[in-house]
């Protein structure tokens, strides 16, 4: 027991020191953090992401081929011919597009209705809010990519970095637009003018997500530094070294939360670890994340 407490104490002391701000880590500190994991995404979030991503790819593959009138054509002739070959007829392709769209909208609505309180509200209020560090992140990232700024000089980021937040906002607005315009076009709801406006907005919303998806996939799946984020969209977890270096504010919140939990538990056994008890941010954090009012 004594040995376990002193090991815990060592870990807490290290965390407590690191909580004072992102700084250059020693080799040993990196090794310790690299061997610990943190939960980043729940099963609901991971499932929604991949259902959303697969639906988007299917919708974009078919949608671009459906735009074949000369004044609307976007994809090259060979691509449209290939898609015609796969589906046989244009009408089959359109029906497939509508069926995937209905499936996609249903999944989003189910997530929105049942996950509103636990997932969606938290994502909007906690993960997407923008502060000064987010605004400063864009020029800093450009310098970082050019090799002129290290991780430790970058503005500290929360659960998502500013680039990811910006893309998430584009996806959110486009999704709402598509969920409204899709049924208008598919089921011919309203006058010809309304349907024409719906077509235009449908196209603009799709293109804004399409333009960003290349950067999103490159940064999330191919960029070596972000590799742990990619695996987090499968396992739900990231290693703490990545969290510390790339999402310091989020790492800090989770550490404060963990430490407060430990402190409460240890207190019940009459054990006091002063460094644990110094982590007082949990109330702000809970009030912020879970809407718990301080009494
Ligand atoms: C092969 C395709 C894709 C891959 C590999 C991929 C990968 C990822 C990963 C790894 C994350 C988590 C980032 C983190 O936790 O730090 C993420 C988040 C996210 N993805 Fe994807 N994604 C793909 C397709 C898409 C598509 C098609 C969309 C939307 C149309 C999308 C929208 C989002 C959004 C909104 C988030 C949350 C915030 C953000 O990172 O922007 N993803 N994705």
Polypeptide structure, described:
Helix 3 (43-66) runs antiparallel to helix 5 (90-114) and helix 5 crosses helix 6. The two termini are 36 Å apart. This protein folds into two domains: 40-236, Transmembrane di-heme cytochromes, Chain C (Fumarate Reductase Cytochrome B subunit), CATH 1.20.950.20; 247-295, no CATH class. The protein has a two-stranded antiparallel sheet. With 295 residues, the chain is mainly α. The longest helix is centred in the last third of the chain and has 31 residues, at 192-222. 74% of the residues lie in helices and 2% in strands. Bound molecules: protoporphyrin IX containing FE. Residues 40, 49, 52-53, 56, 160, 164, 167-168, 171, 209, 213, 216-217, 220-221, 229-230, 232-233 line the site of protoporphyrin IX containing FE (HEM).
